[in-house]
Structure formats: structure tokens, C-alpha cells
Amino acid sequence: MNHRLIVDEWKIIEEGFSPEQNRFAESIFTLGNEHMGLRGFFEEQYSGDSLPGTYLAGVYYPDQTKVGWWKNGYPEYFAKVINATNWIGVDLEINGRQLDLAKSKFKAFRRELDLKSACLTRSFVWIGEDGQEIAFAFSRFLSMARKNIACLSVRIQPLNFNGTITVLPYLDGDVTNEDTNYNEKFWTEINREIDEETALLTMKTKKTGFQVATTMAAQIRSKDGSVLPTIKQECLSEKEFVGYRFTIPVTTNTEFELQKTVAVCTSRDFPQDQLEATSRFKLQAACASGFDQLFAEHNQEMQSKWQDTDITINGDPRVQQGIRYCIFQLLQTYTGADPRLNIGPKGFSGEKYGGAVYWDTEAYCLPFYLYTKIETAKNLLFYRYHQLDKAKENAAKLGLKGALYPMVTIDGAECHNEWEITFEEIHRNAAIAYAIYNYTRYSGDCSYLHDYGIEVLVEISRFWADRVTYNPKKDCYMLLGVTGPNEYENNVNNNWYTNTMAAWTLDY
């Protein structure tokens, strides 16, 4: 795969398609805007190896824990961010035959992620059995200016083709997770509606009861931007699916474009009885602004973020590309707009780690925000403060006082169920304490420490005081049965890092 990625200081560029590396590429070309994100899977159908994934921050399902031997303190479930309604889908047919790159001949494949504008483009030339050629160009972005809005376009130009092209943009709620303990289906349909202007699909998670209303508008436009009058449009509606079928007669060099705009609203952010109306309203406002204006707003927001966060490295384009890609992933995963959210290890790039929050946030991500946008760092601290009661419950399950923050979580409850990790990697408490210290030191703002952080520090310290064992022979306190942050050795006594940070926390 690496030989296909071109070094560019502001872009990730793939030239040529490698089917065996497609899942890797889908992860690399992930887009997000904190509210939602999706892997870089194709808009059109692809029967080869692929992991379609569209995710909504904070919308999760409690996947029941699966273990051989139950131990006291194990979580009852793993809260997972789940695959949600596929809104990116656009089926394409050429003279009635479905376009599928796993079964088609094509050339000039190129995929490009512009880090500066957070826009993903893809292009190729389809080659028919008789040598006819059609050029396809795809573009997508998730608005950083309007977090509920996403847009995509598909430009199609027959190079030497005369016939019919069918374009079918849709919303599909019949989605599953590959990573699930019991192969459960997590969603059920609440409502679907469609007319010539707008399509709506509302889905609800089982058990947790999150509702998601997704609305879509789609238009076919000619090269000059006008709406094509000669196409045939059909409305499609079936269980967990709504879409439009546009049938377009074309001749050589008849260039046209599909513009698809979606609004995605969840019951985390809006009252359920107003959810569908809100999604419709946001879609209508977006469509009134138009595709170009929506991108301009989004791009302006991205430029503002880069002004605050960019790191310039002279003389090594590969390293420059790497550091900007890492910053880009942080920017699209977490902006600090919602203190109920945090940063998962894989962002929106896939199902691994369940989209949950790990202890590493305070150790590795918070320093970035301390240097770039201090209020964003403060919101990461509020995330832990608001989950203090759950942390106290976690400690109580182990028969201990104070608070033990989870190794893995979404809502504050522990989700991890490995003995040496869940019960022994207690160093995670210290990372949160040290984050409070660093925020206060870097910002000079003591208000968080005095009003909120002190409660967290006290409960963490109570945990340390109860967790230690006194050794009368050595006249010292010890931490027995722990695992250090590098996880090289499990169930050891007196891991240096764990002991040092526990003592530091108590002293602080």
C-alpha cells in the first residue's frame, strides 16, 4: 500500500487501486467533524473486501460482555459506538448493469484527501467491454461549520459512450457491526418518508433508545449548474431504505453531476418529538445555501483550525505530511464543542476498540490541546468530572474507596473485561490527576481546580490510600498486583510508574 501513497505536505494521495489493501485505505481516508464520521468506503456498490462504517459520536449500544469465567467487577456490557445509517451510498448503473469496481475494468484510479480543506475526492475511468469509457469523479465533506450536515457529489462524463446511466442516491438503515459479541442487530426503524424533494429515515437503537433522523436531498445538474429537465426520477421506499432513482440518457461528453446533501440529527442533541422536524429544517437551510456555499463555510472553518494548530517542519516532506495527518485526525475527532464527548483511539476510522474512550486521552491527546486551544483541553477535563460518580461505582465494585476511572468507557462505566487490564492498570487514575495539574499550570486558570478538579483529586487520592498495602518489615507502603502502562509485564508488585504517580498525586 505504501508505494501507492504519494508524499505531499498537505494531502494523502493514492494512485492506483489495491483491492487487498482496501480496508487499510478506507481507514486512512476517514472523514469526521466531531459529531459524525465515516470510513473512506466507496459511494457505489463494491463486492470486494470492504468495511463500510458511518458513526455518530456518543450514540452507542451496550454489547453484552462475553467471557469464559465471570469475575467480580467485570462490566456487564461493552458500550460500543455502532455503525449507523449509511447516508453516503450512491448506486450507479450503466445500461442497466451495476457499476462495481470488483467486477469492472477501469483505469486512472486516484483517491486524494486534502488535509487543509478536509475534503475527500476519488476518480477513475470505467472501461466497458466494447472499449467505451466513462469518467467518474467523487467528492465528499462533513461540514465543520454545520455539524449535522454532510455533502457529496458525483460527476459523470461519458468519454465515448452513448446509452443510459442510472444514479441512485439513498439512505440505508439496514447496517450491522462486524465487531459484535452476539451478532445482534442494533437498530430498528421508526419512520421513513419520501417525496420528490426530500427523503427521511429515522432509526432507533435497541436498549439505549437513541433516535437518529437522517434527511436527504438529491439533484442532478448539468455541467453549467442547471437542473437537467430530461431525466426520469423515481422515489424508492422499502424497509429501512429510502432513495431516488434518476435515469439519464447520455451521449459522448454529456457531463452531469449528482449533488447529495444530508442532515443527521440525534436525540442526544434534540428532543425526540422535534427530531425529524429539526433534521428537515437543517437540510432545507443547507440546500438553500447551496453546495458551493456549504463547502466555502466548511473550508473557512478548517482554515481557522489550521491557523491554531499547524506545525511546520522544513526539509522533510514525509515527516511534514505525517504530523499534519495526525493533527487532522485529532481535529476531525474532537473539537471541544461537546464536553460529553472524548477521543477514541481510532477516531471514526473503524470499529476496533468499539469507538470507546481509553485512558490514553489525558496522557497523549490533552497536551496537544493545551498548546493549541486551552478551552478544548478544559472540556476534556469536564468529561471526566461529569463521570466521577461512575468512577466511584467502579471502585466500589472492587471493594475500594474513592474513584477508579475506567480503562475503557463511553458513559463512565467500565467496559473492559481483562483481569490484568481492568483491575490492575490503575495508573490511569494518575493520568487524570496529572492532566488537571498540567491544565492549571499551562493556562494559569485555577478555577477548574478549585471548583471541580479538587473533587476528582480527592476521590482519586482516597482510592490510592485504600489500594496500598503496608509492609511493616520495610516500613513502607506498596502497590501489589498491578500492570504498568507499557503492559510488558502483568500482575507485578510495585511498578515504578504506577507507584511514582500515585505518590505524586497524594503529594499534589
Question: How would you portray this structure in words?
Answer:
It is a single chain. The chain is α+β, with helices and mostly antiparallel strands and 508 residues long. The protein has 2 domains: 2-306, Glycoside hydrolase, family 65, N-terminal domain (Beta-galactosidase, Chain A, domain 5), CATH 2.70.98; 356-507, Glycosyltransferase (Alpha/alpha barrel), CATH 1.50.10. The protein is built from 11 helices and 23 strands. The protein has helices spanning 22-28, 275-289, 291-309, 317-333, 360-372, 374-386, 388-397, 419-422, 428-443, 447-467, 496-507; strands at 5-6, 11-15, 31-32, 36-38, 54-64, 77-83, 90-94, 97-98, 105-114, 119-127, 133-142, 149-158, 163-172, 187-194, 199-205, 211-222, 232-238, 241-250, 256-266, 357-358, 408-409, 469-471, 476-478. The strands form 5 sheets. It has a 10-stranded antiparallel beta sheet with strand order 1-2-9-10-11-12-19-16-15-14. Strands 8-7-13-18-17 form a 5-stranded antiparallel beta sheet, with no helix packed on it. The chain has a 4-stranded antiparallel beta sheet with strand order 3-4-5-6. A hairpin with a 5-residue loop joins β10 (119-127) and β11 (133-142). α5 (360-372) packs parallel to α9 and α6 runs antiparallel to α9 (428-443). The longest helix has 21 residues, at 447-467. The model has no long low-confidence stretch (mean pLDDT 95).
